[in-house]
Please model this.
Amino acid sequence: MLRVLIADDQAVVRLGFRALLEAQDDMQVAGVAGDGREAVRLARQLHPDVVLMDVRMPVMGGIAATRELRGEPGPPRVLVLTTFDIDEYVYDALRAGASGFLLKDATPEEIVTAVRVVGGGDALLAPAITRRLIEEFAARPALEPPPQLADLTPREREILLLMARGLANAEIAETLCLAGQTVKSHVSSILFKLGLRDRVQAVILAYESGLVVPGDAAE
Model:
């Protein structure tokens, strides 16, 4: 059973998300918060698996709350949900440690799926967010590639490049004619070798290090 904490400053939004998630057999709403500070307090108290986090909230915003939660031992996974798809929010939320980013105009099915994906230990980005992330990195100077990149096999580097283009494991498997479990194993190996938490961090590293050229990745 996935325990979810909902953090949003609008009561009607909290009610809507609560009704949607509690209608699922594998989810339980552990609590609701109206601002980021309350979200941090309740997360420490209730130990949810996933926090559904709004960006713009009073007292403490969702990005600051995400950063505070992710800096603690055994933190919950954070799925950022907002009406704002502005570049700075996307980048800041991911750098703060969010495992997923969706817009509030996502369908109920997409939101439920996102909670399951993030709660299961994977990461998720909406296609529109991936495009904006690519545009964001296109304007940034590349950083020095980490030496751990040299530890990747040619196949792992190939999979990392496809991850950076926004492809899910199933799509990578189809592209490379590999079994899904094989791709999953390669992704786990990539994260382990690079010392990363999830595929979102892997994508950020691929762009920041210049391993991926944004124009090429968008093709």
About this structure: Strands lie at 2-7, 27-33, 50-53, 77-82, 100-103, 124-125. Residues 137 and 169 are 23 Å apart (CA to CA). The first strand starts at residue 2 and ends at 7.
